[in-house]
Amino acid sequence: MNRTTLSLIAGSAALAAVTAFASLDAPAAPGGSTVKAAAELPVQRSGLLCPAPSSSDIAETSYTSFTPVTKGAPGDGKAALAAASEKSADGTDASGGGDGTSKGGKKAARPAVTPKAPGTPATGDTSGGDAPALIGLADGRYAPGWTVQETTKVAAGTGRGLLGVTCSAPDTEFWFPGASTAESRTDYVHLTNPDDSAAVVDVQLYGKDGQIKSTVADGFTVPPHSSEPVLLSTLTAEHQSDLTVHVVARSGRIGASVQALDDKQGGDWLAASADPAARLVLPGIPKDATDVRLIAFTPGDDDADLTVRLASPDGLITPAGNETLHVKAGMTTSADLGAVTRGEAGSLVLTPSDGSVPVVAALRVVRGKGAGQETAFIPATAPVGARATAADNSGKGTTLSISAPTATATVKVTASAGTEGGTPVSKTFTIKSGTTQDVAAPVPSGLKGTYALTVETLTGGPAYAARTLTSTENGTSAFTTQTLPTDHSLVPVPQTNEDLSILQK
Q: Would the pLDDT of 70 be above 50?
């Protein structure tokens, strides 16, 4: 592209910006305003990052990609996932070479999964302990609501069980209450950099007495298009059962997830908590949970006093002996809730008892007893909003839990076509205020393969949701839970009118 062309493009862009500014900033006309309400339009580009699934040689990992059909989305586009340190998703060499090879001269591996057209999920799989992290890009009709699920089965060893994570968008800050450096735990924070320049990342640990001095003072440098797992126990000699991990990118953007592996209680991925807030909802505690532990942290200078309630099928109740939780500023606080759901669906609702101090929180949930125990994590999450999606569902191994803690909500749940066939089906549910329901989620008619569940809030709310997958591994009931925060598939775009007179002033 020559300089003249670039100059014309730059001039046109500046003119468009000035025109839009003039229209938005113009004085109101008599009897009305020139500023119209913002329209919500589909996003045109999405990025997702999937951490390296496992270091176990017997790991079996599947990936499921799905984009819901979005009204108003462009008719074209594409989506692709590529291995970190090999090729970026747009086809350029991520390792810095121009010959299509990765580090060490190896040819880039085949894609873990090739996304299909919106409305139809696609799946792929891999095995062993050397599967890389993935970097994904989608544009056009593939971008709005693009969801990728990574699910791993590990039959034996530390962290055995079912591990699941929803691949996340890059960001600059993450909070992970629920991590640990206990002797029985092996926890890693996975840092993935999708961009063309290096990212510098700080990993801070907060225990029961405050921030823990790290052995790494200058942060971690994550090279472009690469992923780095950081073992938390290498950052401190202290063994603490409950930690909050704070990940901050000093430069660049990253994806971050914590892989929590236990010697006896299995393991799972710990997704980031919702941004610090005074009120939090942690949805979808399995009805047969044998032990639930709440971990909370407040990053500010003030202590937080929280009221703890369980949204059950019959309404909000207070767990006996755990009516409130006092969270000291800068210190990780935990509370054992035991078998809090007592055989019924439940979601934890945290509200301020006094004042309004932002907190982050997560639940460590255990199912089973003795040698058959398995663990999963439920972080505080954002509401479903207009739409949220969970991929990689099966007909019998999926439980969808929906909560409406403050107001009755009507939600629509759509089961997509299957990866190998089937017809989409939708159902509508009304969730009463203050309750949680494990709904009878629809299953595609003629299902072949796995499918996606998309939840939409029609009226009322806010509604919060979580999906639990279960399977049996060597006689042990394994499970993993993912929350369903809003997919941010629509963005507000101000309505503007051209006003070229601004150029004459």
A: yes
Pick the closest to residue 134 from 166, 163, 162 (CA basis): 166
* pLDDT value of position 11: 41
Token reading at 278? 């005074």
Residue 69, judged by CB atoms within 10 A of its CB (0-12, 13-18, 19+), counts as middle
Helix (H) or strand (E) holding 21: helix 3-25
Q: Are the beta carbons of 374 and 477 closer than 8 angstroms?
A: yes
Whether 25 has a pLDDT exceeding 90, the answer reads no
Alpha carbons 132 and 52: distance in angstroms, whole number: 5
Alpha-carbon span 263 to 371, nearest angstrom? 10
Measured CA to CA in angstroms, residue 256 lies from 16, 98, 101, 228, 246 at distances of: 37, 28, 26, 10, 10
pLDDT digits (tens, 9 = 90+) for 104-144: 333 345 788 999 999 999 999 999 999 999 999 999 999 99
Sorted by sequence, the CB contacts under 8 Å of residue 436 that are 6+ apart come out as: 283, 284, 311, 312, 313, 345, 346, 347, 401, 402, 403
Rounded Cα distance, 333 and 339, in Å:
19
Stated as kind and residue range, the H or E segment containing 130 is none
CA 110 to chain centre: 25
Residue 255, CA distances (Å) to 34, 152, 460 in order: 41, 19, 33
- The whole-chain average pLDDT of the chain stands at 88
Q: What is the mean pLDDT of residues 1-28?
A: 37
pTM, two decimals, is 0.87
pLDDT in tens, 170-190: 999 999 999 999 999 999 999
**CA atoms of 415 and 150, how far apart (whole Å):** 19
Range from 47-51, 53-57, 406-410, 498-502 carrying the lowest mean pLDDT: 498-502
Phi, psi angles (nearest 5°) of residue 105: 80, 5
Give dist(CA 103, CA 387) in Å, integer.
Answer: 39
Q: Which residues lie below 8 Å from residue 336, measured CB to CB, with a gap of 6+? A: 291, 292, 293
Alpha-carbon span 448 to 451, nearest angstrom:
9
Residue 99: pLDDT over 60:
no
Query: In angstroms, rounded to a whole number, what is the distance separating the alpha carbons of residues 160 and 152?
Result: 10
The bridge status of strand 360-367 relative to strand 374-379 is antiparallel
Give CA–CA dist 136/149, Å, rounded.
12
The dihedral over CA atoms of 307, 248, 240, 153, expressed in degrees to the nearest 10, equals 90
- Rounded Cα distance, 218 and 468, in Å: 39
Torsions phi, psi of 303, nearest 5?
A: -70, 155
Instruction: Output the pLDDT for position 36.
Output: 57
Q: Residue 493 burial (CB < 10 Å; 0-12/13-18/19+)?
A: exposed
State the pLDDT confidence band at 6, using cuts at 50, 70 and 90: very low
